[in-house]
Amino acid sequence: MPAARNGVSELHGLYSKLRTVQNQLQSAPRQMQARQQITAGKQAEIDATKEKIKKLKLSADQSNLQVKTNEAKVLGLKVKLNQAVSNREFDALRSQVEADEMANSVLEDEILAAYEKLDRMKEELTQFETELVALKAAETKLAQELAAAEAGLKAKAAEYQRFIKEAETVIPGEIELAYRRMVQQQGPDAFAAVEGNQCQNCFVTLPPQTLVELKSGKIMFCKSCSKLMHLAPREDRD
To answer: How many whole angstroms separate alpha carbon 72 and alpha carbon 90?
Structure first.
């Protein structure tokens, strides 16, 4: 069995394995970025919740101050009410007292609702902060796992590149330039297996003479799709 016949098939397999390893190396930063975005999203959620709590507490404090101001005003009106010299003045003062007391009642209900909401938001904030701790731990763990895997993947990529260099000795000098240009641009996609009498990239039926030449070990490009052809494993028999 001619060495070239197996050599092109071997190159195809090696370039495929190399691409897989390179894809894994390239995916590591994306994985890390995705994890960091999740952590950042939770931090943003915490910051937004803290800001909401701050604003709601400020609003509740302002309402409390308004209640105290109204209470002082009502006390003053009640003093005037006791000192009223006419029914008209008494009725006007009493109406004002009732209106201010009603306003205070509404404010107190709003303040109570605000504090209940504050309690819920604080509980939510605590939960978010617990989740952030877990997310940061997961981020650290992933960074460690990726760093540990990176060295092994780089070593494997270097090994495949060495194997490729050894296997490339089957490439004839007259097509070497075209071959290197194709594999540099396309990697494993520069190759096409041949099954039966068809190129498995473009599915064009190959002439009988081309099949004979392939089986004899000649290295050839497909005239239809320009891929470097090799016999599929089950076709690669003497």
So the answer is: 19
| Angle between helices 3-82 and 87-167 in degrees, nearest 10 | 170
Q: What is the mean pLDDT of the chain?
A: 91
Which tokens in the block code for residue 66?
A: 């308004």
**Which amino acid, residue 139?**
E
Number of helices (H), then strands (E), in the chain: 4, 3
Q: For residue 23, count other CB atoms closer than 10 A to its CB.
A: 10
- The residue assigned the tokens 């605000």 is 114
> The dihedral of CA 77, 78, 83, 85: what is its sign?
positive
Tokens 């009106």 locate to 77
Residue reference for tokens 């997961």 = 138
Which residue, among 237, 230, 236, 238, has the nearest Cα to 9 in the 3D structure? 230
List, in order of start, the domains of the chain with CATH numbers: 3-170 (1.10.287.1490), 173-235 (no CATH)
Q: What pLDDT, in 10s, does the model give residues 97-155?
A: 888 888 888 889 999 999 999 999 999 999 999 999 999 999 999 999 999 999 999 99
Q: Is 106 left (phi over 0), alpha (psi -120 to 50) or beta?
A: alpha
Distance CA 177, CA 135 (A): 50
- The confidence band for 85, taking pLDDT boundaries of 50, 70 and 90, is confident
- The pLDDT tens digits for 170-214 are 999 999 999 999 999 999 999 999 999 999 999 999 999 999 999
Q: Tell me if 157 sits within 8 A of 25, measured CB to CB.
A: yes
- Reported pTM: 0.66
d(Cα 25, Cα 162) in Å, to the nearest integer? 18
